[in-house]
Amino acid sequence: MSLTVSPSLLRAAESGSVDDEAFAACVRESLPYAWQTVSRVTAELAATGAEFADNEIPPPSEAERGQLLRALASDAIRSSLERHFGVKLAFQNCHRVAAFRPSAVDSDTYRRFVSVRGQLLNQSPELRDC
Q: Pfam families in the record, alphabetically (predicted)?
């Protein structure tokens, strides 16, 4: 799944200067399911006093799953989402994305979520092929 890059954004990249918000807009337009999922968990985080909020709902189709994987597997896209939403993202399996408050990155909760143990405990037979 590729980003749909406008000619003006491509010209900006070719000249060396890319506006962060223009790149975020490209991500939002190209990967709408991923954007909506991250937007929803960050809104849930903002509405609570919790250290993090996460999505445990599998994507409705392989196309949406691909969007989420593309967004979170790319360092550039993931970091752009983190800057735009002001969070630290963590990812497990094919759909479990969590938004953490930046202050929670040094917390036990964050360390448990991103740990090998946390990854293994989040496995299930239904998710083996995701």
A: KH_NucS_shadow
Region 67-83: mean pLDDT is: 93
CA distance 38 to 71: 10
Q: Which bin fits 9, alpha (ψ -120 to 50), beta or left (φ > 0)?
A: alpha
Residue 94 has pLDDT above 70, yes or no: no
Phi, psi values for residue 118, rounded to 5°: -60, -40
Instruction: Name the β-bridge partners of 91.
Output: 97
Interatomic CA distance for residues 4 and 27, integer angstroms: 8
- Residue 86, phi-psi category: left (phi > 0), alpha (psi -120 to 50), beta (remainder): left
pLDDT per residue as tens digits for the range 107-121: 787 777 766 655 666
Rounded to two decimals, the pTM is: 0.84
- HSE-CB at 63 with a 13 A cutoff on CA atoms is 4
